[in-house]
Amino acid sequence: QVQLAESGGGLVQVGGSLRLSCTASGVTFSTYAMGWFRQAPGIEREFVAAVSRAGTTTTNTDSVKGRFTMFRDNAKNTAYLQMNSLKPEDTAVYYCAGVYSSAYYSSYRSEKEYDHWGQGTQVTVSS
Question: How does pLDDT run across 72-97, given as a tens digit for each residue?
């Protein structure tokens, strides 16, 4: 059974940093493309970042450009989201997602591409 477990959320002040982790079990992690999405109250879930099997990444440049970085460690079955220079508008529940991918260099921005989701971790940025 595939499981994705997020951790690392919490309360942080404006300008601070957090690193979210997403640990996968029940899968061959290296064959999965991974993504991070977030959802704030009253707002549709939005794409944050994605990483391919090869480790190449894509981010939502409009909202997190230059501040968020996604990467993966296949030896630890874990994908990460490093968040710096946090803003109040980054407050949301952050979700990890994964999908088996035969395309080594492909990453996916649409939540419809993903088969598996974590339960989410709350990130709150206080001013």
Answer: 999 999 999 999 999 999 999 999 99
